[in-house]
Amino acid sequence: MNKYLFTCLIGSLLFFTCFSQKAKQPLHKKSINSLSQAKQFPIDFIGNWKGQIEWRRNGKPSQQFSMQLKIQPTDSIGQYTWQIIYGDDNKDKRPYILKPVDTAKGHWVVDENDGILLDSYVHGNAMHGAFTVNDNTIVDNYVVENGKMRVEFFSIKMNNKKQSGKGTEETPFVDSYPVVSYQTGILTKLQ
Which of 107, 119, 145, 166 could disulfide-link 171, Cβ–Cβ 3.0 to 4.6 Å? Predict the structure, then answer.
């Protein structure tokens, strides 16, 4: 129940974040736009993207670093590179592969080529996922709007939960977790 509630809360947060900028459109136009954009994945994402990411951590000054994301078709049908490069020196390269699992349901996987597979899900013009490593859950979000890609990473400390509620059906127990860092930036497609 707690995992389900957490997933619903994160999903709601991402939903409202993605659609808050389009609040001026009538509801039916938002739905039509979301459906048409969903058909454009991964086409709108293909390209070599670059920009600055700002990393904000509790109690520490923010830091900036460059990030590149190279999404290109591979020799395998339906698969794409998902190469992340951090820093201007190009030393931190992560040559992953984006593979379809169930495109009708928007389910993809980022294969890190070392046995690690990260599930990702497409909703409209956004692809996002969540994974846990060393008691830290990372929620990632990639949104393409107006030819730019907004990138976000939330880092949540899972072993430092606080529980509230009464444990009843009317007021279930709810676990909350500290968000210890947040990374965000805008990537521009390179020509």
Answer: 166
By residue range, what is the domain housing residue 179?
A: 2-189
* Residue indicated by tokens 């999903």: 11
Q: Within 13 A of 96's CA, how many CA atoms are on the CB side? A: 22
CA dihedral over 157, 56, 88, 117, signed as positive or negative: positive
Cβ-Cβ contacts under 8 Å for 143 (sequence gap 6 or more):
18, 125, 126, 149, 150, 152
Q: What are phi and psi of 2, to 5 degrees?
A: -65, -40
Half-sphere exposure (Cβ direction) of 41: Cα atoms closer than 13 Å: 28
Give the number of domains in the chain. Answer: 1
CATH number at residue 123: 2.40.128.20
DSSP, res 1: -
Convert the pLDDT of each residue in 135-187 to its tens digit: 999 999 999 999 999 999 999 999 999 999 999 999 999 999 999 999 999 99
Alpha-carbon distance of 97 to 103, in angstroms, equals 15
**Cα–Cα dist 55/67, whole Å:** 12
In this structure, the number of other CB atoms found within 10 A of the CB of residue 98 comes to: 22
